[in-house]
């Protein structure tokens, strides 16, 4: 178990590091976008920033919980942990979206959703380019 | 009447997204266990791939949930 466990720990840690680097880049993109929109309008700018935050918070939680390096984890336990973190991610997203729409007024929904969708697309592209072994499975 | 239609639209949006995500993630989990049973030494790699593909599968339902919440609370 020792050698296999060490290998699993190393792989999880490496993936975790790469994923967190992607989230950092996305955070910079989100902040840059909202700073650029500040030239247009303050409401548009903070709506864009909220879109980025709404993407990043659930995903950070998901990554930190799902990619926790536990060398002694069986496939079944790993799957349960992944599903649980996905459910929590959905829950956090729902609560965060509801909180933003109830508490933040005025809000520019177009700017919020465009930033949110841009973050999703940049996440897809970055994660697929990051993992060179993705297409070999 | 108009408000009822808005609620119906939000419910359809979130419900259909949830069905899509459930089917996708269920298939993904089944394939993960199948792969782990065939080659247990690949579990760390499969786990990372699972994480990445799960991010791809649940992106569209997340957008659906966001739009649904907008319809429920802001329209």
Please tally the helical runs of chain A, counting DSSP H or I stretches of 4 or more residues: 4
Overall pLDDT level of chain A: 85
The best one-word shape of chain B is: elongated
Give the biggest beta sheet of chain B: none
What percentage of amino acids of chain B are in beta strands?
A: under 5%
Please tell me what the overall shape of chain A is: globular
N/C terminus separation of chain A:
24 Å
- Count the beta strands of chain B: 0
Amino-to-carboxy terminus distance of chain B: 14 Å
- The helical percent of chain A reads over 70%
- Assembly level: heterodimer
How many strands appear in the DSSP assignment of chain A? 0
Please summarize the sheet with the most strands of chain A: none
What does this structure look like?
The complex is a heterodimer of chains A (137) and B (75). Chain A has 137 residues and is an all-alpha fold. Helices cover 82% and strands 0% of the residues of chain A. Chain A has helices at residues 2-37, 42-66, 75-103, 109-130. The longest helix of chain A is centred in the first third of the chain and has 36 residues, at 2-37. The radius of gyration of chain A is 18 Å and the shape is globular. Chain A starts with a helix and ends in a 7-residue tail after the last helix. Chain B has 75 residues and is mainly alpha-helical. Helices cover 91% and strands 0% of the residues of chain B. Chain B is built from three helices and no strands. The radius of gyration of chain B is 17 Å and the shape is elongated. The chains are: A mainly alpha (137), B mainly alpha (75). The A-B interface holds A 4, 7-8, 11-12, 15, 19, 54, 58-59, 62-63, 66-67, 75-76, 78-79, 82-83, 86, 89-90, 93-94, 97-98, 101-102, 107, 109, 113, 116-117, 120, 123-124, 127-128, 131, 133-134, 137 and B 25, 29, 32-33, 36-37, 40-41, 43-52, 54-56, 58-59, 61-63, 65-67, 69-70, 72-74.
């Amino acid at each position: 178990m020792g050698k296999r466990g060490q290998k699993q720990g190393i792989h999880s840690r490496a993936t975790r590091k790469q994923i967190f680097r992607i989230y950092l880049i996305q955070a910079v993109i989100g902040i840059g976008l909202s700073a650029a929109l500040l030239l247009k309008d303050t409401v548009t700018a903070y709506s864009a920033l909220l879109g980025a935050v709404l993407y990043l918070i659930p995903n950070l939680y998901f990554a930190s919980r799902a990619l926790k390096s536990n060398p002694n984890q069986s496939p079944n336990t790993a799957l349960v942990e992944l599903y649980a973190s996905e459910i929590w991610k959905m829950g956090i997203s729902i609560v965060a979206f509801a909180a933003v729409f109830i508490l933040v007024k005025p809000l520019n929904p177009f700017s919020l959703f465009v930033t949110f969708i841009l973050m999703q697309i940049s996440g897809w592209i970055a994660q697929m380019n990051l993992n060179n072994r993705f297409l070999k499975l | 009447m108009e408000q009822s239609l808005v609620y119906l639209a939000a419910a359809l949006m979130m419900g259909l997204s949830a069905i899509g995500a459930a089917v996708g993630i269920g298939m993904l989990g089944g394939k993960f266990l199948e792969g782990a049973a065939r080659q247990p030494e690949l579990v760390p790699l499969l786990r990372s791939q699972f994480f990445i593909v799960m991010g791809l599968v649940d992106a569209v339902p997340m957008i659906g949930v966001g739009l649904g919440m907008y319809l429920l609370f802001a329209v």
